[in-house]
Each structure stands twice: as structure tokens, then as C-alpha cells.
Amino acid sequence: MSTKAELLEAIAGKNRGLLATEMDKVKVLSVVEQLEDHNPTPKPLEAKELLEGNWRLLYTTSREILNIGRFPLLQLGQIYQCIRVAEAKIYNIAEVVGLPFLEGIVSVAARFEPVDDRRVNVKFERSIVCLQRIINYHSVDSLIEQIEGGTKFPPLDFSLENRDRQGWLDITYLDEDLRIGRGNQGNVFVLAKERG
Fold it and tell me: Which residues form the domain of 35?
């Protein structure tokens, strides 16, 4: 079994890390480190065509993200990180499901600036929390188009530009369909590229 297949098997059924035990986390981190040691793209920020696109979160150690799924009557749907290289923008989009007609979106838009071959500084600019029905949500691409078009989203849509909301992200593994990153808070992110 390849190391990549081993990682996918280790994170299967863990609901992006929400259901991972301490033993699961140790195993996943061990396999992540093995993959990082054999990164086929040592300068990921130069591989713009690989970075560009919509990435679906498979696994994370980020409590901030996983805590969204701990609210009563709500569950995390898909979580995406959409990278637009030419604009140097990142859109984190979490779909929240639960009671009928109360499906929501939690999104943060940010700018990134390369620091070296694999690290970017991230400056968060805008946070959006809204109901999918109110904004006629169909896809992450249509949401990003609305954000870039200047649409304001009720009930919560606010600027983060005057707040000290920034961090960094190292891209430690990148191939045509898998990306691993490590953030400034020590979190690990494993994402799969969406096709089509």
C-alpha cells in the first residue's frame, strides 16, 4: 500500500478529525510526516496550476474548524479551501447542515502573500455567516463570485481588516489531487482537490 493510500485509509471514517481518538491522531500524523518527507513538489508556491482550485477538507487537527460541528442540532457539511492564485486569495467555506431550511454557510475570505517556496502569510479580510436559502447557495464557485461582486450577506457579514487576524500556512505536500498544510497554530490540514 502506498503512503498516500495509507493516509486516506487512516483518516477514513474520522469525520475530518471530529471522531479521531488520540491513537488515530498519532497514526495520522505519522503517515503525514512520511508523505511530507517525499513531497513531489518541493516548491509548491511555484506550482500555481496544482495549487489553483477548490480543495475539500479531509482531515484537520484544528479545533476552531471542528468546533463548528459541535453545536446542538447542527453538523458540518463539506468544508472547502478555495485558492485563487492570480488574485492571491483564499476562501474558507464550511457548509453547515441541520434542521430543514436552516442550512448555513460559514466563510472567511483572506489574502495570501508568499514568504518563501512553501510558506504564505495569510491576512483574513472578511467573515460571513448566513443561511444557504437566503443567498441561494449552489456551489463554492457561485458564492465566491458573489463575494467578489461585492454582495453583502445577512445576517452576519463583517470586515476583519481592522482586526489582527492573520497567520501563516506551510504547504508541506502537494500533488495533483492531495495537499497537506501546517498552520501557525500547529494545526494539520489534509485536503483533496475537487474535480470538474
Answer: 3-193
Distance CA 66, CA 125 (A): 21
CB distance 191 to 17 below 8 Å? no
Give the CATH number, domain containing residue 12: 2.40.128.280
Bridge partner residues of 132 (DSSP): none
Report the C-alpha gap between 24 and 155 in whole angstroms.
Answer: 38
For residue 44, give the 3-state DSSP assignment: helix
Residue with cell 463583517: 158
Spatial separation of the C-alpha atoms in residues 141 and 144, rounded to whole Å:
5
Q: Report in angstroms the alpha-carbon separations of 18 from 45, 104, 106, 156, 158.
A: 29, 19, 17, 26, 28
Give residue-wise pLDDT tens across range 27-71: 999 999 999 999 999 999 999 999 999 999 999 999 888 887 666
> What are 37's three cell numbers?
518527507
Tally of domains within the chain: 1
